[in-house]
Amino acid sequence: MSEEKVTCNVCHAHCALSEGQTGRCMARWNNGGKIKAKNYGVITSLALDPIEKKPLARFFPGTRILSVGSYGCNLQCPFCQNYEISRSDGEAIHIQSETMSPEELCSLAAELKNNGRGNIGVAFTYNEPLVGWEFVRDTAKLVHAAGMKNVLVSNGNASQEILAEILPYIDAMNIDLKSFDGNCYKDYLKGDLDMVKAFISTASRAEHCDLEITSLIVPGHNDSPEEMRDLSSWIAALDDGRGIEIPLHITRYFPRYRESAPATDIALIHRLAAIAKENLHHVYIGNC
What we know:
TIM Barrel; two-stranded antiparallel sheet; globular; 22% strand
């Protein structure tokens, strides 16, 4: 009889894993017949960042937030800016990482709040946080109990089941909407546009959680005026038309990782932003 596999429920990949096997995100594995986060509490990046760097333009502007990252990601973006940690299985970066419990991370955030450093909470960012959603949930509960805020910076390529686990504890999100073309998501990014749209749609209806969206413009992949018009119109229609108030960050791509196309033309970024402003009240330009 063949060994029974267990299916991961985090994203569209639905990795069916044998005992000891790790999924495509390189962060979740079958351990004892259960899918667990291999990266639980493994910290590769830790910094006190301006909130605007997440980017969040309309959530406690002028403050700072303790930003934390681990390793792993469920997309395979050729232009990834953090590929050293997002495309790692943890082994190569072991010497450069540390392990923290949710209690330790919350305690550090509180210390940075109380010592005059201006910290308002914890941002889960840098790699894809939801491949280790259990650590996000467990830490975010403690951060809330300590009177601080939680921010999620994610690709949104996660199931509704996982979103339900973490949404009650998240005060603000920035979600990457990397394209509005399903084929681009499937073939270029190895993701699922419909899953991302469902994630964003649900988040947009959460009254307790501020939502902002980022679109990185990569030449030849998601840079057409028609796509930006469709994308911004869809955002505006979210939450029965209240999506018109959702901030959209249109950012410039630079060559990185496996993508060698020239950096996005600045004039194009401004033209796409002007199109987005036809539908949305708050459009921001980044990396220019």
